[in-house]
Amino acid sequence: PCVFYKNICKATVNSVMRCVYICVPVNSRVSNKIQQLLNTLKRPKRPPLREFFVDDFEELLDVQQPDPNQPKPEGQQMSPLEGEPLGVVTNWPPSLPAALQRWGTTQPKSPCLTALDNAGKPVYTLTYGKLWTRSQKLAYTLLNKLSTRNEPLLMPGDRVALVFPNSDPVMFMVAFYGCLLAELVPVPIEVPLTRKDAGSQQIGFLLGSCGVTLALTTDACQKGLPKAQTGEVATFKGWPRLLWFVTDGKHVVKPPKDWHPPIREASNDIAYIEYKTSKEGSTMGIAVSHAAMLAHCHALTQACGYTEGETITNVLDFKRESGLWHGVLTSVMNRMHVISIPYSLMKVNPLSWIQKVHTYKARVAVVKSRDMHWSLLAQRDQRDISLSSLRMLIVADGANPWSISSCDAFLNVFQARGLRPEVICPCASSSEAMTVAIRRPPEMGVPPPGKAVLSMGGLSHSVIRVDTEEKLSVLTVQDVGQVMPAALVCVVRVEGTPYLCQTDEVGEICVSSGSTGVAYYGLPGMTKNIFETIPVTSSGVPVSDRPFTRTSLLGFVGPDSLVFIVGKMDGLMVVSGRRHNADDVVATALAVEPMKFVYRGRIAVFSVSVLHDERIVVVAEQRPDASEEDSFQWMSRVLQAIDSIHQVGVYCLALVPANTLPKAPLGGIHISETKQRFLEGALHPCNVLMCPHTCVTNLPKPRQKQPGKVGPASMIVGNLVAGKRIAQACGRDVAQLEDNDQARKFLYIQDVLQWRAQATPDHPLFLVLNAKGTVASTASCLQLHKRAERVAAALMGRLNTGDHVALVYPPGIDLIATFYGCLYAGCVPVTVRPPHPQNLATTLPTVKMIVEVSKSVCILTTQAIMKLLKSKEAAAAVDIKSWPTVLDTDDLPRKKSPQMYKPPTPEMLAYLDFSVSTTGILAGVKMSHAATSALCRSIKLQCELYPSRQIAICLDPYCGLGFALWCLCSVYSGHQSILVPPLELESNASLWLAAVSQYKVRVTFCSYSVMEMCTKGLGSQTEALRLRNVNLSCVRTCMVVAEERPRIALTQSFSKIFKDLGLSPRAVSTTFGCRVNVAICLQGTAGPDPTTVYVDMRALRHDRVRLVERGSPHSLPLMESGKILPGVKVIIANTETKGPLGDSHLGEIWVSSPHNATGYYTVYGEEALHADHFNTKLSFGDTQTVWARTGYLGFLRRTELTDASGERHDALYVVGSLDETLELRGMRYHPIDIETSVIRSHKSIAECAVFTWTNLLVVVVELEGSEQEALDLVALVTNVVLEEHYLIVGVVVVVDPGVIPINSRGEKQRMHLRDGFLADQLDPIYVAYNM
Fold this sequence. Notes:
The protein is α/β, with parallel strands linked by helices and 1331 residues long. The chain contains 38 helices and 58 strands. The strands form 15 sheets. It has a 9-stranded mixed β-sheet with strand order 3-2-13-12-14-15-16-17-20, with helices on both faces. Strands 34-33-42-41-43-44-45 form a 7-stranded mixed β-sheet, with helices on both faces. Strands 1-21-22-24-25 form a 5-stranded antiparallel β-sheet. Helix 5 crosses helix 6, helix 6 (128-144) packs across helix 7 and helix 24 (781-796) crosses helix 25 (813-825). The longest helix is centred in the middle third of the chain and has 19 residues, at 628-646. It is found in: Cell projection, Neuron projection. It holds the Pfam family AMP-dom_DIP2-like. Residues 63-84 are annotated as: Disordered.
């Protein structure tokens, strides 16, 4: 079928398959035909037309190819490792509560737990007897004395939160065992200190998902919690409603003699839930059954050789992990005495745990490498300490890469104090699998400890390669001993199917035993992944019929069956296919000398995903006395160190003030919360260094322009093949339009004014409003004519015909009257915006420049401005002696000019229109009398303007369409213009809208800056305006006068806000004009509503238009810029070949119309470049018509709508100014697109402007917030521009609001900003140069 054939032709050969797949079901009867067609297409007769058919805007991100030389594992497949069997103990209790009952009744005086105060003094020793009786009391109270509506509050199996401070182990232990005796499930959590603790919301989620309704706490702790007005404990953010119960003695009751807690055998019911925070920051509850709790105690007892009555010091958090397993559970199993060292005491006295080992002759100590490191810093004060009693120093985080250095250093110092080297026992554990491996105490006859020196490069490819210690790029790890008794351990691949690793390969360690957690409470899906993994051999056979638990530990099994750990899944960062461990990167950063600029324990390393790869971020706390210079030196050293040791780039390195990183419960940094703050822009760094240029290696390749010029012939053929019509469109034909236009018989606008002054002398033409909304001045036809005559009389004696006259007036009738006075006298008027009295330094030079460039021989102005031009302040800005004659027109004598000047031909120059473009070029265009009349007639027809109409104008009257609407249109069409000077809106934002409502205006014009003032200033006041009877339902069309792509977001929010005041959603539209033709499009009163299309932003960069659905990725909404005016013809031309383009192709907008300007009077500074702007012809096709080049990119698209003429409507979409575009990486970017992304990236960015400087993209953002947020923006801006535009930002400049210069049309003056940046005049808050 022919439709299908067209489709095939449009497609490229290689996408034909896709095309067929979409178009035709496989079993259809056409498929043979298509097969033939495909066969012919496979042998193209001639090369394809590249210009039209290569869809190269699918910018493909570079996929990193694996290095062919990278190391690969070569060993055998590992075989699962079995721990020794659990020994049979004859009188082993059947459950933990049974053990408590045994010791509590047979050895009641035996010490169980000693608590210390912050001075290290023992405050209380809990005996086994006390623990037993107090736990029973609590159990009885919880089950029997708490009720709601006569129902018991708690039933066996219910979950209860335990909220106890780290300094109160006794109350915690009583509460924990009280719950076990009552068959309740304790859920120990941290004490929430404020309502906004790091991760507190997640704890709330955990409590909610566990169905917790009751929280147990101490009296002191309850008093310290934040309270609501009622005096009750406040509900924390994200927490369920909780009842708080204080477990101190006076609140619990003694059970009756006949009540006994049920002591059962350990079952598979849940005993307790331990919380764990994942890498992403979510908190899970790990459920541990009674049987697993008992088995774990049994295995630890055997592995550590615990004996009854031993003394053990515990520095760890007793609520979870090793602190709980050794110091609360296994200790009770073996009637051991625990000396609990609170964190607060360690902060005051890091040696306290060593002193307690000495004092209590403790046999075992449970610590972290941090505690060993701290005690080294403080050990000089202590001479008489002996550690000879220790048979086991359990290093709970022995799996950490930096624990080995702490162990070695500690041994070095304390060997002299009786510490034997073999008692140091690192262990590896995880919340899910509990203890995985532990180095056995020396008396068990185990092989000597091992040490492995591994190549970092190998590890990044998950391969084990032994190296030498002299090298920097090695990781030295110690073993964590043997597998736990009765456990089966294997190492599996990290991603995908859990295949067993080879012996020289790093993988995730998995454990199968009776002593691991059983589930994530309430999360069956995740539970299956983690707790029910089935490792398989390379041939896919399961290793065992028992399920395994993933430990999230990365490691391998070394010689002598010793387990080695090289990292954790949580700290794994996969960058460009290579694996790096966050802890290793921290260790490298810490090794960089000197350490005196940052705090040792306060470094966070994590990865964020930007542009489809992980990027490494390092955040550290800076010491308050470090200077910026010091910090930068340290930062650059860290970058170099990480680069050379890990062969990976750091994307962002940020230093924050001391003590501002979110803390984990017991010291350390809350990594996920830090990452969250980084991504939200809430980290508030004081120094930041970003290195996207070195890190981001997967950008698409820069675009190469097609080789060789594509000739005109192929273009035309291209159009035909593509089945496209050439993109051209025109407004209604002026000649065909018959209307009773009296003004048409006059060739000159000044003649129209004279005719109106005679025909309708009292007809009001103009009405100017002041800030209060009252009428400041008016002019009828006759009044305007009379005032113009006076001006002409004053000029005729002084000036020659054809002289240029600068009119420097504030917006008002004076400006209009002097304009016509000049025409009456045969002079050429040039309207100039007056200088701003408060800002002469920047505004006066522009006035001076226009006066000079326009070759004005005289300045007409008011007395006030005349004084200003010659004032002392003005002299500081310009040379005031070189002004031409200045006349003030405030008190001109009432005399008629001898006779009016009649121009010999309508092609004569009528006026000059000067405007500064956004790129900072001052361009004046010549408007002939013929063009002036044609412009007025075209606007009159489009807006249906008659003497009986009123229109409201809130625009500046100095150039472009604003000038035409103020000074020309009313005189031509006879309608009344209500003039609202935009400056007055600064003191009364509702002035314009109130006027529109008061005069029931149907047609109104404004600028984007006016629209912005209304949305920002009145957004919250629509109710007040309604009470003042402001009603906008009269408005049929409200047009924004613009020389840019329509700002959809602004027009939409304006429509939305003022919908409440009756503004029709169809009313708002935009116009389009430029220097060569000030009015090309304007919605007017008839014709279809402006349409909006969505285009692919990536295609635009390649000068293509690709229409997509709303909401699709990279989509950009473009709104039609009103209707093409009568008499105007528009065509889209290729910027390079100057040939016509097809429908929906992006090119330069060319325009032909009777009201085109006739040429530039001058282009200040760039005369040669613009010679062809006004008279260009197409290189082929219609080569006769003379066109003017607008300098704007856009496209035409034929729509399904019908025009007033009954034809199908052609819509013109303006994409942006060619002068403004940035050429980067071979593509064309429109600044506004990048700026829109940037503004969206953080709530405190008020405005943004971008420009290029020596190939670097510079982004200037205005910060509307506190200055501490300034550096947060650097990373967010860099991220969003990379993600959405595939560009690397070179410089981020953070400035105060109002620094980005904006012209009267509300357009950003990016070139002025660039000049200010290069001249160092922006006074920025912060400048970040991305490396």
